[in-house]
Amino acid sequence: MPNSVIQGLTTTTTAQLNHLPAFPTTVLLGLFTLLDSDHPEKEVCARPSDILDIIEIGKTVALTVDRQWDTDDGQSRTRRYQAERYSPTHLTQIHQALAALHRATVVLHRREAGQQPALAARTVHVLDSFGYLYRDAGQPVDLDDLPVGETKVNVGTEERPLWRLRHRTKHGERDRPPNGILFRLNVELTRELTGSKGTIGFTLLARKVFGLLRQFHRQPKAVRLILLILRQTGTQCTRQFAKLLTDLGFDAHHPTRSLDELRTLLEDLQVARLLNGFRLDVDQDRLLLELNKAWHRESQID
């Protein structure tokens, strides 16, 4: 995962990427797994359901399907299959999350050349491009030459349009489910993923992180804290308590409540084996985290 993105998600910047809700943040991590590790600059084509499979959210086993047929000797046969379907709520949420990521920006950090290299920063969109793919009879639909009864609607902005198709039914217009999504990561973020000179690099995350994030997918502050912890390279890290509260989205106007909420969250992360322990000194404005670098081998999360 590009380090500029992790920094944007876990610290306060002008891009306000750390305001991204928990579910879109998890979807963003899912998009990174779809990139070609050798050529992350390539455009990716995937189905929304592929992302739900990756982030381990949304699939339910809730129905059976009966298949009937006649044999050659005229006898009727029936076989029952168990089928899986995706939660309609999560399918709707995935499209909302993808639209949010289409708009999302991040402050990109680069090391400038010189005897005393300094970090230069500028704001870019996380995705250079994003769109929906529709097919008829296996062929891509031309959005500028639509079939009869279909219209395109911009669900993005005038600056960054995002087109979805709607089709007429006897009950009125309905959104047409896309056959896939197409996206391309910002080219400078892809350079971080390949460790190019002048970038601040990337962080490898264990695939098991999605099981952990599933536990906290309704808690954006928890997701940000998890990413902050996973970004660390050592077995300990220290943070200023007050700044951390602001960066992670806690209510700075109610410090006592925020403190209790943070302490509960840290205890939960100990149970998940992400932390070995922590020490919080409010008077000294200091939080020490003791990290478990082997959490993905010890955690009981599936």
Structure, explained:
Helix content is about 35%, strand content about 30%. The chain is α+β, with helices and mostly antiparallel strands and about 300 residues long. It folds into two domains: about 5-60 and about 90-230, no CATH class; about 230-300, no CATH class. The strands form six sheets. The protein has a three-stranded antiparallel β-sheet with strand order 1-12-6. A three-stranded antiparallel β-sheet has the order 9-10-11, with no helix packed on it. The protein is globular.
Give me some keywords for this one.
30% strand, 3-stranded antiparallel sheet, single chain
In a few lines, what is going on in this structure?
The protein is α+β, with helices and mostly antiparallel strands and 302 residues long. It has helices at residues 3-10, 22-33, 48-55, 88-103, 187-193, 209-215, 220-231, 241-248, 255-271, 295-298; strands at residues 44-46, 59-70, 76-86, 105-111, 119-125, 127-133, 135-136, 139-140, 150-154, 163-169, 172-175, 180-185, 236-239, 275-281, 286-291. α2 crosses α4.
Sequence-ordered SSE layout with sheet pairings:
Blueprint: H1 3-10, H2 22-33, E1 44-46, H3 48-55, E2 59-70, E3 76-86, H4 88-103, E4 105-111, E5 119-125, E6 127-133, E7 135-136, E8 139-140, E9 150-154, E10 163-169, E11 172-175, E12 180-185, H5 187-193, H6 209-215, H7 220-231, E13 236-239, H8 241-248, H9 255-271, E14 275-281, E15 286-291, H10 295-298
Antiparallel strand pairs: 1-12, 2-3, 4-5, 6-12, 7-8, 9-10, 10-11, 13-15, 14-15
Helix pairs in contact: 1-7, 2-3, 2-4, 2-7, 3-4
